[in-house]
């Protein structure tokens, strides 16, 4: 089944004219990203936009939502006054399935445990014309790649790894739910025109090296915030040599460098993948406009002239990499990893190896990992670590079962988990004798922040390709180098592992019994969406209050967060996922993972009203009850990681008025703005050190709040002294209106009410 073919035909029909008009407008050759962006403007422009500065309104082709974020997005959408979504949209049930014993049992448990949420998502999708992918159908990004992604398209998704679709030449960007509401309501979607990072790939991968190693190396070069505000565009002969799913892996993990998204140019590998997934019609359409789905020839010839930064990687020389622990940009070539393990005293024994996830669960990934599993059997090797496999979709799972790959994994004791996110997002009931014991795990996932996978601070998580993960599983030792080291068989012989082999696409084609798709009702007007008023999983939303019209005075310091503060620290996943549709309940996890700079503890801050220490949400609820606002102070790249807008909605709901940090991650800053929050940055980052534990703040200048104009935060100290701190912001006029109205949704609601009046 080819979804949205008429929409895709319209995009391609208009593309040549729009690209030519853009070329004339800019007066120069174009990168691929520029072609797609300018072809998706909400309204035509007569002037070029400045990268990194101009705010631009776009018209995305589609919206994708996963079940954890879809709840809040759709609770917001149902209040805006529309009868149906304005663009093709889908919901994918992948986040709420906990990995515990195995696929069948875990899926059954999830369907029972989350029955209320699934019924809500199914019914609201049915009512508003949204495609619904049932639990077990697969992980959102894999399902999108298999069914919806198309070269030259523009998509937004309520998950930070939405850029996975760049593997099929699509600009696919992770956003918060409020952005999705805008697009589903037919309104423009706003984004600061991204800068462009070009990554030139030469040569060809071979041996143990894989597409995952490309992004692991790039992460080491650019770090977790080096791609912020940028699109990463891969090009060159090396790019064309990679499979479409390998390209998807690279684009997926671009989220770990803070990139807006990543993209590859259309080529024969993409055409082959489209045909293999029964979308030959789309491949034929793309072939008809293929020159417009690649950068212009002049860009290839002199890339530094057209990109803001250029990185070159020779795939012939690329070593396999292992990144971690605790951050995905700590990159180690395999030849140096064993030494790093020893020098840093990381636990050498590997306890669990996990492959799959939205990043690495393609047929190619699984078949290459299976080739190593087969070697373990054939060479009479013990597999020393626990080993799990997470298929990315039912299409992949069914196909690898048919082709005997699951049986191969079974022979080495591998446990197949549900087609869902599972351990990658903390949905893992891990079995461990002592949760406080230092231990090591390795995954083919994308993130490895502390507590990310199993909720345990003592777990050292490393990230690598499925092939390297499988080799480490066999060895059970992180100082093992599969390229150079030997292993002992069960009968004491020494052997080496051969290089992994696999197939980009299944020789017999893909197959599936039930992909898990539910089409929406043709007319949803009679469909009822029921949310119980006594539910602890779902809660209808009340509008946030508008700004008072004055400067904000007497705000208490809630927490001064020290060091890395990701959205996992601000709004944890794992067991908290069940409350993603209930704002008040999930607000009880607000900032409980952040480290308080004044005592180096998590979830322990001073209540200035009582002088006692308590959990962050407890103290904030006390301030809210006393009608006192508060300020959260943070460090660099605050809010990196997941796109979850709960990290912005929870502080807003509990009465935090401003977030003041050294710098923000892109999606989180936008989420704060959408919810009517003040997201501010220190003009002088050293002013972070002036914040004291008992500070009370005044935010001055709001009555003349304007783009580019600094505000002043007055930190009133306990001893009677004070510091006047200049702060910056990136609010444009529209975003200032969101702040004044109490949130973007209040503005949308008013617009639709006026239109219907």
UniProtKB/TrEMBL annotation:
E.C. number: 4.2.1.3
Record keywords: Iron, Iron-sulfur, Lyase, Metal-binding, Transit peptide, Tricarboxylic acid cycle
InterPro entries: Acnase/IPM_dHydase_lsu_aba_1/3, Acoase/IPM_deHydtase_lsu_aba, Aconitase/3IPM_dehydase_swvl, Aconitase/IPM_isomerase, Aconitase_4Fe-4S_BS, Aconitase_4Fe-4S_dom, Aconitase_dom2, Aconitase_mito-like
Main enzyme class: lyase
Domain Aconitase A/isopropylmalate dehydratase small subunit swivel, chain residue ranges per copy: 557-684
Record flagged with keyword Metal-binding: yes
Residue ranges of domain Aconitase/3-isopropylmalate dehydratase large subunit alpha/beta/alpha in the record: 34-476
Catalytic activity, as annotated: citrate = D-threo-isocitrate
Domain of life of the source: Bacteria
Cofactor: [4Fe-4S] cluster
A GO-annotated cellular component: cytosol
Pfam families the UniProt entry points to: Aconitase, Aconitase_C
GO terms under biological process: tricarboxylic acid cycle
Coiled-coil positions: none
Name of the protein in question: Aconitate hydratase A
Organism of this sequence: Chitinophaga ginsengisoli
